[in-house]
């Protein structure tokens, strides 16, 4: 029997995976990912970048209509609904992060929800959950083709490459495509891959997620119509390999093989507590710990008495921004996040707004910051650390180090805190009924016969659809 090529093996696996292959661990983790993605996406509908892409997308029409999250009377063609909702998810850089580095959920879930609403037969919640996990799995497999991918990126934004492939795989699965069609969906999606990291810390970065989820969906739909691409796109250095200096692809195991294991089973994601680049969580926790030591000794944090702040962080040019002038630069600045934490003893959504960001006190403290990149502090979300040292005018030094922040896959958010995060974000857009309904549906997604109920709750900005709300006891705890 001839051995399958790498791309062929992916097409076969995407087609063959079934709900019977889902494990309890994968179901639990993926439901957490779905809930968090919906929450940060709903919060993101309040941002300027979301409103810009929404205004653009409203100029297009089609017979098929899909929900725009957080909008009670607004629908768009499925690919554009996926686009704007994907932008919303990443508009504050608040979405989950995986290892090797990418934002896995935002590239997949908006496409699936938009597609599900447009299908003649509404998929079940279990169908949606399977397709979501197929999209996540494909991203994880592709990231492991390169050792370069394990580090904080330097040249391109990973979701723009593996995210569009994950969206294509997930959409192909939900559409029920054949192995050959799944293969071509990946090939078509590869021609929409890639976004330069130079657009990080700008309003364009959220479009990387929006484009990934949209173009992956379109690739699957085109493959369904018979469009073909290179059937060895994953096998070739001139295929997906163009993005990596050390590309070593490998086949995806047959789902019937005992060797098949979901990557999500062994590698959890990180959930963010602040709307910023993941690395900022380390420096924020280190800064707050250093401040606590200072307050224990001298009584209070007095800016006038601070002589110097030293940050020891991993080397990464695009998150070293001494004086950010925009909210997006601030979300990618070690200096800004450390100084916000030192001044306020917290970092919140409002920390990145104009009023907080342009405070004279913050500018004064930023001028006192020195950044060091010690040898051995690797630019990897699995290995990095951050240190903060505050020196006073009296010569006192207060030092703290963060090796693992709360929310990292080594120290995961509790279910209670994850649901609390979702409530805080979703309630800024939806009614209480909508918020509780989404928690309930996601908690029991594998039991839902009709996944379109998610769209109904995502539009519930008032209590007009209260009769659709079906509360279950202790829904917050069912995961």
Automatic annotation (TrEMBL):
MmgE/PrpD C-terminal domain mapped to chain residues: 275-446
InterPro entries given in the database record: MmgE/PrpD_sf, MmgE/PrpD_sf_1, MmgE/PrpD_sf_2, MmgE_PrpD, MmgE_PrpD_C, MmgE_PrpD_N
Protein family (similarity comment): Belongs to the PrpD family.
Gene Ontology CC terms: mitochondrion
GO terms of molecular function: aconitate decarboxylase activity
PANTHER family: 2-METHYLCITRATE DEHYDRATASE-RELATED, CIS-ACONITATE DECARBOXYLASE
GO biological process: defense response
Name of the protein: Cis-aconitate decarboxylase
Domain MmgE/PrpD N-terminal residues, every copy: 10-242
Xref: Pfam families: MmgE_PrpD_C, MmgE_PrpD_N
Transmembrane segments: none
Species whose genome carries this gene: Takifugu flavidus
Stored SUPFAM superfamilies: 2-methylcitrate dehydratase PrpD (SSF103378)
